[in-house]
Design goal:
single chain; 236 residues; alpha+beta; transmembrane helix; transmembrane; membrane
C-alpha cells in the first residue's frame, strides 16, 4: 500500500475553482466593457464641448459680419475658426419668410413642393402653432418628410412677415454696406466639417462687443446640410 492517496483532482482544477475563475473573468470583462463605454462617452463629451466653443466663435464672427451689412437676403459663406477649421455659415432674415398664419393658409401644393408628405396635415399643424412661443423645431415637426425637416425653416418662420414664399439660392455676402441691422431677427446656422451644427435665431442689437442676442438655439450633429433648399422655391 502506498504511503499516500492520489489527489481526487489528479492535478486538474476542481469544479469550484473553475467556477470562481469564470466568475472573476466575467467581472473583469464587465469592468473592461464599462471602462471602454465610459471612455467613449468622455471622448464624445469632449468633442461636443470643443465643437460648442468653436461654434460660439463662428457665430460671433458671423454676427459681426452681419452687423456690417450683408447682401443678398440669404447668404452663405465660410469662416476659419481655430480648433474647428472651416465652418460653413448660412444666414437668413426671418422677416422675409412666411409667417405661421400665412403658411397655415397656403396652398397645400406649396407645402408639398417643400417636401411635406401630408401637406394638408402640415398646414393644419402650422396653423395651430402659438405665434408667441413657436420655434423652428415646431415648424419642422409639422411633417415627417426628410426634405421638409431640412428646408421648412428656410421658408416658414414664427417671425415671418411675408405673405408669399421667397426662397432664393444662398450666395456669398457682398462687401460691407455699413448697414447696422438693429432689431432684425435672423436664422444663422454654423456647420463644421465634422457635421456639428449650431442653429440659432438671433436678434441684431448692433453692439460691437455683442452684435446679437440669442432667442433660440439647437446644437446637433447631422449629415444633411443645406440640401439645395433654394432650388425648391426660387423666384424667376
Amino acid at each position: 500500500m502506498g504511503c499516500c492517496a492520489e489527489p481526487v483532482d489528479a492535478g486538474y482544477a476542481s469544479g469550484a475553482a473553475i467556477a470562481v475563475s469564470l466568475a472573476m473573468a466575467m467581472v473583469a470583462t464587465g469592468l473592461m466593457v464599462r471602462a471602454v463605454a465610459d471612455l467613449k462617452r468622455a471622448r464624445a463629451d469632449h468633442a461636443r464641448t470643443q465643437a460648442r466653443y468653436a461654434l460660439d466663435g463662428a457665430h460671433l464672427l458671423a454676427a459681426r459680419r452681419m452687423a456690417e451689412g450683408i447682401d443678398p437676403r440669404r447668404a452663405a459663406w465660410s469662416l476659419s475658426v481655430p480648433g474647428a477649421g472651416s465652418v460653413g455659415i448660412l444666414a437668413e432674415p426671418e422677416s422675409a419668410k412666411l409667417g405661421l398664419e400665412a403658411a397655415g393658409q397656403a396652398d397645400p401644393g406649396l407645402l408639398s413642393a417643400l417636401g411635406a408628405r401630408d401637406a394638408v396635415a402640415a398646414s393644419v399643424a402650422i396653423g395651430r402653432l402659438p405665434a408667441g412661443t413657436a420655434t423652428p423645431e415646431d415648424v419642422e415637426a409639422a411633417d415627417a418628410g426628410p426634405v421638409w425637416r431640412a428646408c421648412a425653416s428656410s421658408l416658414i418662420s414664427p417671425w415671418g412677415l411675408a405673405q408669399a414664399p421667397f426662397l432664393p439660392q444662398a450666395g456669398p455676402p457682398t462687401s460691407n454696406t455699413g448697414v447696422m441691422r438693429r432689431g432684425e431677427v435672423w436664422r444663422v446656422v454654423a456647420t463644421t466639417a465634422e457635421g456639428w451644427r449650431d442653429e440659432r435665431i438671433v436678434r441684431m442689437v448692433g453692439r460691437p462687443e455683442r452684435p446679437a442676442t440669442v432667442i433660440w438655439r439647437r446644437v446637433s450633429r447631422r449629415s444633411d446640410k443645406d440640401q439645395g433648399c433654394g432650388v425648391i422655391i426660387d423666384p424667376a
